[in-house]
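Weekly modeling sync, notes
Attendees: S.R. (lead), two postdocs, one rotation student

Agenda item 3: backlog of single-chain predictions. S.R. asked that every request posted to the team notebook include the full sequence so nobody has to chase files. The rotation student volunteered to paste the first one in as an example of the format we agreed on. Action items at the bottom.

Example entry:
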Amino acid sequence: MISPDQVNQWRIIPRVLVGWYSLLVWRVTDWFMLLDAPTTEHTIFVSTVIGMSAAIFGLYVNSGNKND
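Predicted structure, as returned to the notebook:
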């Protein structure tokens, strides 16, 4: 049985979320590159999704154990 301390120590939840977001960025980028004539709205959407990567990565990096 996995204890809550092990879940915190292994950082399972943040790693799953970063992995999921990486997949999302990949899929959105792939979708955008396959568009024949991207519009301004498409470009803004993709820029927002990719731009949020920095914030997601920053949250992941700063979510470690504060007692170290």
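Discussion: group reviewed the output briefly. The mean pLDDT is 88.
Action items: rotation student to repeat for the remaining queue; S.R. to check formatting next week.
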